[in-house]
Design a protein that fits this description.
The chain has helices at 48-52, 55-64, 75-84, 93-100, 102-111, 129-132, 157-166, 228-244, 276-281, 289-295, 389-402, and strands at residues 5-10, 22-25, 38-40, 65-70, 119-123, 138-142, 151-154, 171-176, 180-189, 194-196, 200-204, 216-220, 249-258, 263-269, 311-317, 331-336, 340-346, 357-361, 370-377. By secondary structure, the protein is α+β, with helices and mostly antiparallel strands. It contains eleven helices and 19 strands. The strands form three sheets. Strands 9, 10, 11, 12, 13, 14, 15, 16, 17, 18 and 19 form an eleven-stranded antiparallel β-sheet that branches. Strands 3-2-1-4 form a four-stranded parallel β-sheet. The chain has a four-stranded antiparallel β-sheet with strand order 5-8-6-7, sandwiched between helices.
Length: 409
Amino acid sequence: MTGGRVFYVAPDPVAALGSQLSVLAASDAGLAADPDRLTVVPGGGRAGRSLLELPEVGWRLQREAAAVVLWTGSAAARRRLAELGIPNANSDPQVARRLENKAHFQDAARAWGIPVPRSVSGVAGPDLLPSASHFGRAVFQLARGYSGAATYPVRDAADLDELITRFAGHPCRVAEFVEGTPVTVTGVALEERVALGPPCLQLTGIAELTPYPLGSCGNDFSSPVLGAEAVAQVAQQTGEWLRELGHRGIFGVDLVVDGRGRPWCIEVNPRLVASLPLWSLSATAGGSLLDLHLAAFGLAEDTGASLDCHWSQLILYQQGRLASAEAAASQEGNWEPGRGFVPERRLTLAGPGPGRVGLIRRSPAGPGKEIARLILEGPLIGADGHLLPHLRTAVLSLRRELEPGPARP
C-alpha cells in the first residue's frame, strides 16, 4: 500500500472476505463483529453509492481512506468520491457498461477477433425474429442481467417467439447455443500488461442451487478444465482487448469449451467478480488478485507475481419461501462423515481457515437472489458433471433449513 487504508464500500462485506481491506457495509452478512475492519452502517441501502451519500460515511472516508473500492462502479459514485477528494479504485463505469451490455458485446468482441458464437442483436420484436430463428437451439439474453436472471434457453421456434413477444421493445441478444463446459477466467488489466489466473469450472444451471437454467452458481478451481491452454489464450486476448478499451482492474471472462476443446467467449465482466474471496483466501506472500487490482490504480506495487486459486464455492439462490426475514449467523466448520457440514464458530471477515468450510448466510433480498454460499477447498463436481454426493446432501439440507415452505410458482 502507498499509505492510508483502502476501504471497500458495499451492501455487504462478502467480496472483502479474506482480504486486508477495511469495510463499510449496510449489512454484516452474519459475520462476527470486527470493530477494527468491519463497520455496519444502518440505512445504507443496497448499493455502495447510497452509502457514500451518508454524511457519517463521507466524514469517515475523508479522515481515514487512501482510496475506495466499490462492488460496481457508477458515475454517481465516481462524482461523490471526487467531491470527497478520495481516489476511486474502480474502472471507468462507462467502459464497463458498454462491455457488459450483451447486445453490444458480441459484435465488438468479434471485430477484435475474439471467438464468439453466431448471434444477432437488436430490439426484441417482429423485425428480429427472422434473423434469430435460424440458429435452432439458442440463448436469449436481455442486454443487462446478472447470474442468469435475464438469460433464457431457446429450444425451438416457439420458445423464441414467446421470448421476443414477452420482452418486446427491450434490447437483447440471441446467440447460437454452444454445447460444452462453462469455464471462467479471472484477471487484472494493468497499465502495461494483463495478469491472468488459472481457469476454473463455472457451475451453471444446477437445479439444487439456482432457479435459472443458465445461471452461474459457483466456481470449482480443483477440477480439471478441458482445453485449459486454449482457454488461457482466448482469455489473454480478451483481457488485452479490455485493456485497450480503457478498462483497469479485475475482470472475468466467461467461456464455453465445446466437445473439441475449442473455447467460445460468451461474455465479459469488467468489474469485481463473485469469486474474489476465493482469490484472497489463496493469496501468497507474493501478492493477491486484490493487490494487482490496487496496483492498476497506483495504490500497490505490481510485483509480477503469478495468480493462483485453490478455494471453490457453491452459491444458493432463493427458490422458495424463506423461513425467516432475519438472516442467521454465518459460520465456520468442517465436514463430518454422516453429519455433513458441522458449524464450530462464527465466521469472521478473515474467512475460513485452511482445510475448513465457510457458510455465509445473506440477508433476504427476494426471489432469485443469493441467500447463502459455501466456501471450501477441493473439487465440487464429479466425473458425471453433477455435484459430489456429500455436497449435494449439504446443499439440500441447507435449502430445507432456509426454505422450509413450498417453492414459489
